[in-house]
């Protein structure tokens, strides 16, 4: 169920396009709003995201290898490993279950 994103930034502006943009933000659900904000941010800073299909392929290869070695899960602690398997380079731990 998609909840409407209800936070709307009201600003005094004489430009019609800015008012329309604010209204569009109000009509978005939360997931759409986050995606649009991240896309704008990433374009402004030149980020290139790893395609979802590539991430799924990498995880599939890893899980096949895990199955062969009978490993139930992997905990990735290195930033590059987290990036390789998730597409994001944060200071974090990434748990990858076999299933």
Q: Would you mind describing this structure in some detail?
A:
There is one protein chain. The protein is mainly α and 99 residues long. The chain folds into 2 domains: 47 residues; 46 residues, no CATH class. It is built from 4 helices and 2 strands; from the N terminus they run αααβαβ. The protein has a two-stranded antiparallel sheet. It is elongated, with a radius of gyration of 19 Å.
List keywords for this structure.
mainly alpha; disordered N terminus; two-stranded antiparallel ribbon; 2 domains; 99 residues
Distance between the termini: 26 Å
Q: What is the H-and-E element order?
A: HHHEHE
The biggest beta sheet, please? 2 strands, antiparallel
Q: What is the mean pLDDT?
A: 78
């Amino acid at each position: 169920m998609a909840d409407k994103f209800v936070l709307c930034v009201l600003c005094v502006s004489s430009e019609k396009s800015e008012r329309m943009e604010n209204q569009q933000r109000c009509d978005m659900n939360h997931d759409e709003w986050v995606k649009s904000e991240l896309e704008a941010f990433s374009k402004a800073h030149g980020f290139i995201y790893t395609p979802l299909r590539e991430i799924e392929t990498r995880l599939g290869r890893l899980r096949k290898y895990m199955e062969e070695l009978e490993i139930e899960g992997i905990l990735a602690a290195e930033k590059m490993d987290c990036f390789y398997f998730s597409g994001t380079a944060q200071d974090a731990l990434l748990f990858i279950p076999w299933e």
